[in-house]
Amino acid sequence: MRPPLASILGTGRHIPETVLTNADLERRIDTSDEWIRTRTGIRERRIAAAGELPSDMAASAARKALARAGIEAAEIDAIVVATLTPDHPFPCTACLLQHKLGATRALAFDVSAACSGFIYGLSVAEGLLAAGTARHVLVVGAEKLSTVTDWRDRNTCV
After folding, report:
1. Mean pLDDT, residues 41-67
2. Omega before 91 cis (within 30°)?
């Protein structure tokens, strides 16, 4: 059996403080906690603060992952950010994250593939490692869907 091409050295996460529960949605739209839980399994959502950007959340999670991995930002060869809600259309969120971390020698780009984006990011990372293009790849999923969600639309906001 061949050894794995890649391994996960560290993980990190960022969880916004504001909580939006199903009960909160019950007060806004025609729905119920039972209806939402039965169909989605969701009990609550975390809502990023108004000034909190996807790259801020990504940086918070990335710093934790790097610390757990024992890797400095200068050792990162590539940064892949999976997001549908970038800070701006340009520059990409991965470049903003690169700057925030001080990962000055890392190539950086975004992957926009909705729910599967993080999995695609991991696959791209494995390809970079297998090709010998990179030794350390940081893959981050960061979304701020609350900025694009219509909280009055029962079909999508639950």
Report:
1. 97
2. yes
Q: How many CB atoms lie within 10 A of CB 111?
A: 22
Q: For residue 10, what is the enclosing H or E element?
A: none
Please tell me the distance from the alpha carbon of residue 25 to that of residue 27, in angstroms, as a whole number: 5
pTM of the model: 0.92
Q: Strands across the sheet with 107-111, in order? A: 107-111, 78-82, 137-141
112-117: average pLDDT: 94
pLDDT score at 24: 96
| Residue that the structure tokens 């991995």 belong to | 69
Residue 33 pairs in a beta bridge with none
Between CA 118 and CA 126, with CA 121 as vertex, the angle to 5 degrees is 130
- Label residue 123 exposed, middle or buried (CB < 10 Å: 0-12, 13-18, 19+): middle
- How does DSSP assign 59-94, residue by residue? HHHHHHHHHHHT--GGG--EEEEE-SS-SSSSS-HH
Instruction: Say how far apart CA 18 and CA 57 lie, in whole Å.
Output: 14
**C-alpha dihedral sign at 90, 92, 97, 98:** negative
